[in-house]
Protein 1
Amino acid sequence: MPSFFKNKKTKTQTTIDSSSSKPSNGKQDETTLTFEIDKNVQLIKDCMGNPPDLNVRKIIIDASSDFSIAMIRMDGMSDKKEVDFSVIEPLSKLNFQELREQLDNPNSAEVLGRLIAVNKLEKMNNLEKVVKSILQGNTAILFSHTQQIFLASTRLIDKRGLSEPTSQTVIRGPKDSFTEDLRTNTSLVRARITNPKLRIETLNAGEITHTNIELMYLKGIANDSILQEVRSRIKKIKIDAILESSYIEEFIQDSKNSIFPTLISTERPDVVVANLLEGRFAIFVYGTPYVLIGPATFIQFFQSPEDYYQNYYMGSFIRILRFVAFFIALYIPGLYVAIMTHHHALIPTTLLITLAGQREGVPFPIVVEALIMELVFEVLREAGVRMPRAVGQTVSIVGALILGQAAVEAGFVSASTVIVVSLTAIANFTMPFFNVAIAARILRFFLLLLGSFIGMYGILLGTFMILAHLCSLRSFGLPYFDPITPFKLLEQKDVFIRLPLPKQRTRPQPARPEQKFRVKRGGSQNET
Amino acid sequence: MKSKIKIGGLQFFCLIFLFELGSAVLFGMAKEAKQDAWIPILLGIAGGCILFSVYLGLHKRYPDLPLTSYSQQILGKYLGWVIGFGYVVYFSYLAARVLRDFEELLVISQYHNTSLLTLGLYMIASIIYVMFKGFEVFSRLSQICLFLFLFTALPILLLEVSAQLLQPENLLPLLENGWSPVIKALFPSTISVPFGEMVAFTMLLPLVKDYKTAKRFGYLGIIVSGLYLTFRTLMNIAAIGTDARMRSTFPVLTEIGLVEIGDFIQRLDSLILIILVILGFVKIFIFFYCAVLGLGDLFKLKKPDKMIYPLGILIIFTSVFIAPNFNTHLEIGFKIVPIYLHLPFQMAIPIILLLVALIKSKIKKSRTKQPN
Amino acid sequence: MKRKCLVILVLFMFTHFLGGCSNYRELRDAVFIAGLGIDWIKEKKRYEITFQAFSPTSTAGTGSAGAGSTGSVLYTAEGRTISEAARQASKKFSRMPDYSHVRIVVIGDDLAKAESLNYIFDVFERDANIRANIPALIARGTSAKEVLSVIPATEHPVQSINGKVRNSSKMLGENEATEIYQIINQLTSTGTEPTIGGISVITSENPTQPPGTKETKLRGMGIIKEGKLVGWLDGTKSKSILFLNNQMRQTNESINCGGHRYTSVRITSSKSKIKVHMNTGKPEITIHVDALGIVDEMLCNRKIMEYDVLHEYEKKTAGNIAKHIQDGINEAKKQKSDIFGFGDILHRQHPEEWKKYESRWHDVFAKSKVSIHVNFILHGTSMRVEPYPYK
């Protein structure tokens, strides 16, 4: 939900808080709707603290019998035109008698529904629900002499149009990405899977924000017990607000303290579709273009959708390259420092002479130098993300020239360290999902320190620790390192290399899908 | 450490393979048999299999219990407890010994100025970290270790061949001094290290999925690792010759250190340290873990994890104070330990346990039969 | 509790860093020794060690890469052991010497002749830092210090010597780079003796250099017997070692074809098989060499297309090879030093016989009977068949 909403609400009214106030229908107190239209309008206004964006329109139909209609809606959250044409116009055209009759009708909502041309029309007499509905962008229609309030769905929030993904781009492949609007997002997936088995369940979290969360899966393919686990975990979330899917991620992941992500977050609809088809679930959260996918395995963070859109030789090559890049991003600074301080023998002689020449006259010990340069790079990167677009050029010139070339020429740092740091930085950007790159970014410092303390031995032991940690991780109870350990030969088809799609007849098993085969055995593959 | 850990066959195989290679690769086995050193190793496989069948026989009778438990059932509470405790001490001592081996390896080959204690600390600290993650995690880790091992060992093998280092004629003449040095090398040293060290697995067999897996992959592990050791020894002799092998502390390092292709590929001995540390890690972990399991079992601890820190610190200090210098350490390792420790703990006690268990079950059977 | 203990352990790790017993060493704190020279000072009965080091020249701040900066620095020190001398040298070094990049070891003439070589190699085996697979050379007729003091104009002295050794063994086949571990193996084995290449200092004849400029040149292979240098295999004789050890990569033979004209045959590959057996107390050594080669220069008008001519060349080349081998063996027999490892071959082929003669193998070897069979095949004449007609 937009943040202005949150602030106002928490200050002025607490009765909205559904868990704390229980509406008592029979009693005549301030929160119960009355039969008087003005009082009801006032009640609703009071309930929200009479905000300036609350739009109340009152039409007096018949002054003699004091019959009037009031329309209450949030400005900016509802469709003004639709309210004008589909609600106000038909209602104002009706004559007073007709309207009276229809209101007295027990199924007045249905009758009125024929008149008011909106998607959905609901009848409510609970103040709290009405307010909530108004806050969601619906228009409340109040009539004189009745407790019933009709709510027409006129929700319309200005939203960003579809745009290209910003963090997970591909060369060949779909260019659309999710937006902040939940319904748009689900529609993007639905458009790709036109199958009734695609199921969406609505869940809710955020005690104050009441953020809509939707769980999407393919029935019959996704594992039921995992889905059950997801539902219960989402229900257990205790938090006041959910502003991004990462809030949910932190609550539902298995290991709260791990540096490695155990849920995928993507802004690409095709990634969601591919994962749904492998038996995973997706969690859509209102207000963020990042959709969570689980259960995840470590390998998945190295699988870019493009691997499947390109020739499989290229796909496999790029995949392996990505693992190498991850290795570089994680290890090269550590190994560099370890070799330069503990294992001089390992450097080929000619290279050693070059390196030794570079190190002459450089003031800092190599560990300090590497740490400084790594940190400087992290600062540069952070600045690159946060800075205003207009000064982008300046920062990149400062970064490249001053910190790179000038620092070397001035003899502050050695050229080899700059090379190593920039190699690491570039390697880090090859990850298709940036959250696994974050793990490499942080663990790099751990290995760098170990390497400087005790050389390659330390790095090796550090590797054991990292690997053991990865082996111990689970995502929704399923091993994170599947299928490397426990090793499954048949599952290697899409790990380090990607086999051609016709060869991948079974779904990958890490998510334990209910259907093993993608297509029915002996299916229509060869017939076309 | 969860109570229900079940290890699959492949992981069990990886554990055995890496465990067996452990310090055997490091020191070079059966040096006294000179150029025939590979023969006792090849024969040792058979000995290893026989010993393993004894351990398996015990495991079959008590499928859910480790050695420290069934020794109490077989020999009575007190004697069994003492024997179980003996095993705990034995495992801890071996863990400390292996740790010392690898500390010395690192000091001699790379870290001349670093203290044994420091190197031991790093090793034990990382082992403790993994141990808290549980044995299941470790057995999975061992699988990755096997990949790491293969990815490092195979290229080195290829490099060795392409550096034209191997001189097969070093292996001749065959059986120059007859069979007696071969037999001397075989028993007890080659059988006890590494094959007899499988006694540690009497503590771990209950963690394996089922008896059939344990049997099949256990034998497979012993045979494959034995064959690898044989092959390794053949390569070692062919590369550096018998004399250098006898003289060098770590023949494998000497061997790999000679590889030089062009100006770029050289000093691979630093690289092979990676393999050796992987092997050492697995071996120390297993002995250490067996000791922890044994203690937990003997003292009926609900959380054996509590024993990890004290035992770990004990092992570090034992490893340092076990011997004043490396030569004494080796002397103890090659002369005293095989006879006074390996022989009873690896062979005598398990065989006696199995015999007593057999006799007991016979007596039981005859008793149940008699009334009928 | 678990976490707390882990923190303690990590702190423990830091202590070693503070305690200073670490291997941490910056590149700029080390001086990298490229070549070692070992001489024997007779009067003092001490070793004199010459260290030829890479001189680190600063390239930081200049903006250019450090490539090509291969200045050299020479230090000497004395000691009763090599290690002692190395420690003594620290008075002269401003940095910690690092021996992991030693590329060559030069042994002084006096040391090789008068003192035994048996003792000096131990440190190369024992110390994990120095490699054992580096070539050793004998400073022929001079001291190791002299050899290492010769500074070529363009290269680092050690790289220059190393290059010469490698080049010569590859192109000419007269100088084998005997590596230290091989020398040790041969010294320890009773059935073989080492040969070590020689290097000497000459005055350059290069007119572009200032007169009196020194340069180094490889000369012959030294025959070692019981740890001492006893003689030299010079020129084509030293090819015998490479032929018999199957180390021959390339060499050429000049075949006389009338008058003072020669034809050059390039030998491209060769393989030898040696059999040794004892016959009434005398070793009988049978050597089979199979070699291949091409004609790479022809300075006489011969119709090489014809089978007979070709065959004649083949026979002459084979004869040449056999002669080199024979000369080499004769020289070794004269010195009573089995540099070809015939003893080891006997050991492998007839272990029982070997035991009888092991203790006095040198004398037995000197009496050996050698038969050499060379089979040479010319398999090409390069880009031309016939030479252009000389007038």
Protein 2
Amino acid sequence: MNNNRFADNRAWFLVLPATLLVAFSSLIPFIAVVNYSLQIVFNMNTHSFVGWSTFHDALTNEEFRGALGRQVLFTAIVLAIEVPLGIGVALTMPRSGRAVGPIMVVLALPLLVPWNVVGLIWQIFARGDIGLFGAFVNNVLHINYNYATGSVSAWFTVVLMSVWHWTSLIALLCYAGLCAIPGAFYQAARIDGASRWAVFRFIELPKLRGVLTIAILLRFVYSFKVYAEPLTVTGGGPGSSTTFMTEMLTNTAIGQFAYGKAAAYGLLYFLIILLISYVFYIVLTRVGTSEGDQ
Amino acid sequence: MALIRFDGVAHSYSGHAEKPADYALQPMNFSWDDGGAYALLGPSGCGKSTLLNICSGLLKPSEGRVFFGDRDVTDLSPERRNIAQVFQFPVLYDSMSVYDNLAFPLRNRKVQRSHIDRRVREVAEMLDLGSVLKRRASGLGAELKQKISMGRGLVRDDTSAILFDEPLTVIDPQLKWRLRRQLKEVHKQFSHTMIYVTHDQIEALTFADKVVVMSDGEIVQVGTPQELFERPEHTFVGFFIGSPGMNFIECRIDGDSAVIGERRVSLSASQANAAAQAGSGDFKLGIRPEFVEAARPGEGFAARVTAVADMGEFHLVTADLDGNELKIKLPDAHAHIQDDTLHVQFPSEWLCLYHNERLIGHEVEVAA
Amino acid sequence: MTIRRICLTLFILFLLIPIYWLVMMSFKSNTEITSQLTFFPKDWTLVHYHDIFNSGKWTGSFLHSLSYVALNVAITLPLAIPAAYAFSRYDFLADKHLFFWFLTNLMAPPAVFLIPYFQLYHSIHLFDTVYAVALAHTLFNLPLAVWILEGFMSGVPREIDETAYLDGYSLPRFFIKIFLPLIGSGIGVAAFFCFMFSWIELLLANTLTSSNAMPFATMMSSAFTASGTDWGILAAAGTLTLIPGVLVIWFVRHRIASGFALGRV
């Protein structure tokens, strides 16, 4: 938001409809979840209040901690791969010419595939019997690869699928950022004798900070909420080796009918996302702006 | 001594030029003297930036060669020419401090640290940047930012020319004169060759020793500000420089006089000679609004006045003379106007004769 | 230059080959799929598409998906545009807190809300309708649209508003005649993102429907049966889900670059 705005509280009338709908979609369910989380629900009608102990249970629960650990690991791995790769792809893209349109369409394509279909595509593609990739790894590279039985294979598949699915988002955002850099910056760098690396480090990367902040935040949030894709491919297995937070939560709520537990887990989960997003946001907007400033 | 020499340089962005209209820069031979302060003046799209980018090496001309001294630099990249360029908008490395910005060109060239430090401090002192050296460059005002861009060019020992591409566009009007004065001081102190592109004639005339006027991809005149004002070699220069520009009056030649309507104006001997040699074509007389004089009623030419504007120190009269619009600057116009008619005369020493838009019959041309 | 091109080509192949494999599989017979690996169908068959188009359940579910996506965009944009305008132009009580609260909903994991959503939409008798899904998707789409539009609107100088008011325009007339055309591409981008996130979301859509408004993606799970998986029909259904996305991107292909920057470069 810019700072140069009209002061007028009547603007509330403009935001009111949107606020009411968002409140309906999030506030009412949120209050319900808080209410559940403070109770253990035996069935839909008789419940007894147990308060904070539910939260305490969550933090010491094996299931919760296991899923959270796997979730953090998964998010860290996919961010570490997708962010540099996405920047790299953006740097290789031509800025103009007839190829730009088709390249954009291909890049955006994985983003518009429904999430369970992403899972389906990789489920088929990576199978040893009917999939090109699975057959290639098993029969040509002679590596024993089966995502249904080996947890390493399963992790590899889930990460590769995420890279396939989401790297384009970072690439497209960075490409937009790169296109917005005026030509004079590159010209000045040539006159200053800057190397290709210096141009990237001192011109392109600083100018990409804004879009990269958005990209990393979105990628963090969506990778932390990942559900349908790994579920379709591995079903969370083998064992629970690829069971991430959302799946653990739905299993608890719907599979075990433990609403109170699920609600408490869910609130903690939401809180963790908010907290990490906030930290990311602060770090990303401060980095490279305050250092050296007195 | 010529520092930068253009030998048949021309440029066409399409790469294949067949007719003059295909060129952004028409074929030209031209030399920039070592240590000169040049202004490159012309309207938008006249090819000034193209010419500048050919000097700096950001653009390779599609025809001709560029020489720095005796060295053919046509194929050299910008960093291998001893040139700095300041762009229209401040180009800074946002994530670096002012100090690091200034040191950047030297660090890229692997210069010794102690030498870098000394150079950066010298340049900062000269440009009054000493107090902000530790600050981040991104938070500073446009004037300081442009000084830093300039400093990056000055910091190198080997810089022999600095090119400016409309560098004051983003500076507040009150600060423009200050930066311009600082530029002149830098020029005096280091005698780098400076080429300053602008479309603002005041900027050009106050900054430069020599002004190069361009139009449609061609250099139409090179001269001191005074020469441009008094003897424009092309009607475009007369029109473009001065406020308002030069008056042009269509005429025909008869012996040693020019005829406007029914009345005659006598020409100098050299003008008459040149006109006779030129043969047919369009002839125009040119005279600055400052040099037109009021005549007594009945004498000179009767011009019909269409407007009189009070400009404070003088009146600006707009009048019609046989279908030619005349602008005249007079200290007290109303004293001379009767019944919407003003009698004017054209002092022969300020009268220029143009044949097909080019100045003829003047000693300056002979001397050159 | 050539190294760059090779890298880009490799990445594009990496994106396309899995999709190619899916599409080709949809034209193979089930025996061919399970008996051998072929890069190209030996016998082209349209039997899987034929099965889908002749089943009311499949075609119906495809229409359900399309309608809740369209409804969602139709609900989201008219509410998001005035809200984004307020955030970009006015200073009002608690504006920053409200904006932040909007954004937190982008981060909310839908899984947390499954049970309350189920009960909420049951209690207002919208369960198992496309309206339920369309409304539920506003949870993340409305904040997203407000965020995108606010970025584009802040790029329009405020002087334009002031000039229009001085010229005697009322707020609604200024908005329709002058402002909306100026942020046309921003509205397009917001619509694109709302379409995208509603089309690809499954968890809420699945939870809020059963048989009458079943989304296409849920319908696909019926191809996994106890007697085995009908890979052919799954591949054909998967291929069909790509089509709306491809159509939408094709229409906005020239705006994608600026669009993905959300008006913030």
Protein 3
Amino acid sequence: MATANIEVSETPLVLYALRRADDALILGHRLSEWCGHAPMLEEDMALSNIALDLIGQARELYSYAAKAEGGDNDEDKLAYLRDVRQYRNLLLVEQPNGDFAQTLVRQFFYSAFADLYWRAMMTSRDTTLAAIAAKSEKESAYHLRHASEWLIRLGDGTDESHARAQAAIDHLWAFTGEMFAVDDGARGLIHAGIAVDPGPLRGRWLQTITDVVSEATLVLPQNDWMQQGGRAGRHSEHLGHLLSELQSIQRTFPGLTW
Amino acid sequence: MYTQALNTAETDDRGLEDAAKAAQFQARIDAEERIEPNDWMPAAYRKTLTRQISQHAHSEIVGMLPEGNWITRAPTLRRKAALLAKVQDECGHGLYLYAAAETLGASREELVDAMLAGKAKYSSIFNYPTLTWADIGTIGWLVDGAAIMNQIPLCRCSYGPYARAMIRVCKEESFHQRQGYEIMLTLCRGSDEQKAMAQDALNRWWWPVLMMFGPPDATSQHSDTSTRWKIKRFSNDELRQKFVDATVPQAQYLGLTIPDPGMIQDAEGHWRYSEIDWAEFKQVLAGNGPCNRDRMAARRKAHEDGAWVREAAAAYAAKRTQRQTAQAAE
């Protein structure tokens, strides 16, 4: 039956592309939830812009995953017909928007990573991934600038904004470790020069984070316990709700053209 | 703010509106000259434009809500990106329009406050709900189509900043309209369920869209002076008829039925529609449309929830200025 979840043969390359596509889609979706509800019109525009960049990245990565898989799947089947256990995104990006501080801190942690990661990926031996990386890096650099400038304003703004920004950092910190983890499948791609090892990027990521957080008069948590599981489909309870909304039309009216 | 640089004080003093200035102003309008922010203008012209432009801006912003309702549920990634970009465009239109209103001496903050207090209006069409995906197609096709019909003549409006804003807005709206029609076409070429969804959306939106052109000419309050000032170039009924004549063949091409059994084509080729239910229009304007309360509540919530963010940005800017001043003094 067409409503059933699709099957994906997750070769290392397919899984690689899916993970990055899922990160981009889920974060883009979260940001799009702000559209029409942001603290100021300029932020309705900016958050929508960032969401559009991320959805664009997701589409390219899904299409590449589908091509690498070589079957009947396409970008929409991959996005709309996998359930929560088949999604491979980071736990960080599925966390709810919360207040504006939580959204910005989530974006800040992710963009500071994505900027470094995509820049490193521009030298991938896989020319498609290198091209996606070149475009994504430009976008991520802007996303990082936007999030950093806001974090500084929130941290060094009023007592209330400072407290909210600090609470967001404390809440989301445990989801940052997963960005740097590598499993066996990914290791093969790293050896082959197709993917880059995110592990060594953590030092520079932490430097960026520390600089901005300190300018914002905020502090990073001492607790280093990190949540894991998104890459293997073990998500928070939040993702299922997001997917039930995202996929509702395709699940209700299976197999149609829209 | 840059509005303070404009000569508003003089024109606010109605005592100075002597007959000679007014005659000169009207002569410029009659000669199709554009009025610019620093030019002398009658207080009533300024007031009319401020009301019209700010209502237009509020409509763009409130109009983000019914379509925004489907961003998270768009059926494909391509549709999701297109819808998000479209709603973002509307926000951009709102921003241009508030900026155009600011050139008349009204700040965005006071205009938004008036809207949130329920003292300023926005287009009644956005008080109807978007229930299915076909509503997104229908809004693009009909609501944006009607908006274009209203706004194309505004590209020649006598007030320069408004006219220029409308040129860009119309370009984007026309793209939105094609996008909406393409959604409808896809639905109408789809399954029986999809066709029924498209017809149902047309049935619900048709009459409210006709009401977008405003009350019939016989009862319109603002038209006479607006026409004389070349803010308005066609009457409500003229624009409504143009819209209906353009839309009927589009509906026929889709294979959809306009929900007006009494509609006939006259000898000149115009599609004559039945009597519009103006009682419904009045109810929606009075706040009793299906979504008036929801729309206002959503805008107020965004405004109130965002207050601490705006305060933080202002506090940070003040601190930075203070630091820079202190540094300069050292």
Protein 4
Amino acid sequence: MNKEVENMMIDAGHRNDLGHPLDYRELNRQIREAICEGKERLILMNVMGQRYIASATSNPNMRIEIHGTPGNDLGAFLNGGTIEVFGNAQDVTANTMNDGRIIVHGNSGDITGLAARGGTLLVKGNSGYRVGIHIKEFEGVGPNLVIGGFVNDYLGEYMAGGTILILGQGVEGSPVGLHVGAGMHGGRIYVRGPVGKHQLGPAACLAEMTDKDLKKVDSLIDQYEKAFGGDVDRSIEYSKVIPLDSRPFRGHYDSTTI
Amino acid sequence: MDRDYMQTATLSFPEASSVFAEQSYVVEIPDCHKPRMGSCGIAGCINIDGSMISGSKIEKMITTMSERENGLGSGFVAYGLFPDFAEEYCMQFLFENEDSQAQTEELMSNWVYMIKDEKVPTFPQRSMMPPFPLVRRYFVRPKKGTEVYIRTGLNEEDYMVRLVMSINETVPGSYCVSSGKDMAVFKGSGYAREIAKFYDISRYKGSMWLSHSRFPTNSPGWWAGSHPISILDWSICHNGEITSYGVNRKLVEMAGYKCTLLTDSEVVTYLWDLMVRRHRLPPTAAAFAMAPWYYKDIERLPDNERRLANQLRITYKEAFLNGPFSILVGRSDPVVTMMALADRKKLRPLVMGVSGDGNSVYAASEECAIKSVQGDAEMWATRAGNPAIVKVGEGIVRRGTEAPFLGAI
């Protein structure tokens, strides 16, 4: 028998007596309270820049819908459940995400997916600078970041693991900026479109797509299409960026290290 | 900032106002509004058709980002404020006391004709830290043909800059916070909501507003050091740190500017004035000098642009602003213009938005500030070191995503 899922609505729209939007701590207190009460479906209306929304949520059945503009650090330390944003997300979305899904029906700002270590982030539109920096994986568990449009410089900087896919829809030329994968030593970046040598950061290099890569890309595009609808043209050639070495700075700082 | 500045900074307005002499200043601030981690917030709006925007709109934008401030400074600047005195320079002052006012007026009387002077209405808030400065504005015209004017050998604008610099440098407790035509700066030490109420920002209307809420990190929070920092018709709201301050300061001081406001951000204002007004660089070239590309990226530019880029880097190497920043720049000569620029690695946030009808353009640190006043705004982000330029009457001249030097004039 299907469990009846109760929707709970929280309106973050009113301003307090100081003229500020509802304080983020108050909003997050209400969210946590609802989660503790066993609510599994939350709808947040008129969100106006409140930070840290749904941070560290861990119930895998949790589903949080956000209407408006969530603030920085959306879903920080997310450990399970789904956050869906109907609008744009600001900076540092999915900061250190561990598990769960964040779906953004719009653009996301700079530093998206900072230091993520698991879970899935799907952004329909574009993202900014330093997407997926320092993401990592352990024993086969790592984050998947999918950006539908373009991203800017420093994509996957210091990347230690995990997967980034840039679809570059509606973009002429390369959908990524400069310094791609600067200092990376693990993981893989798939770019649907060209990546020039001059765009690569130190310690990154281009590689051929293998069948395993194509399978991975296919499964991520399936998720993207399921989340946002529409068809992604899969015939465009991919560029794959991987680290030159698992220890790019070997000997740089201490010549005695191995 | 070195220590000398930090020490002199504490003198701000020791005995100005006695408005609250009998009242208790200590207000219990609820826990959720105590100062906490943040960073500066900037916000600006401009109407392309030149129609007036109420101050309450910019107040709503900047207070939406209250997360970013810590109550140590905020300010607003409006353009198109005084249509009746559009040809006079409006000098707006913060005076520590009546004495500094008298000394300033005496000095000014040798330099300029005072067409009109008036007290700027202020409404001290109980939650703000006294003392409060006296705020006064003067509509002035340079005394051309007098001995002082001729002796300086300067043109009108430089003459006004010299006057502002000498007042800020020599008159104790007197700071000229804005000196442009048809514009004024309203700033002080406090939260954005407090400064907005202190000056009752909602009573003013302008075709462009810029605002700033401050989270000072390496310079003191005080009244004249708050942003926007203005000279002539230029005003700058700055979020970030200028780590190359020493070099930049040397350049502007050699050009006659005096750094008196105890903050790194004021060199940015003087650099814009120096490069664009005095040296007549197009704004995009000035922006490139402040946030240049790496040499290895310049190599990839087409011939002409590469030469220009290299020349700018070499000629204006002291104008290179090192460190993270995002700035909003306002000016009104020849038309009211808003420019938004982030550093070359985009280490500080900056987003742009345009209303559905295309008439109102916004820039802010966070999207929520724009969406709070324009729900249908279409958003975009400028690229690192790439200025977005919006002009009254002309529209969005540059979106900040183009190749360098496009849309330069």
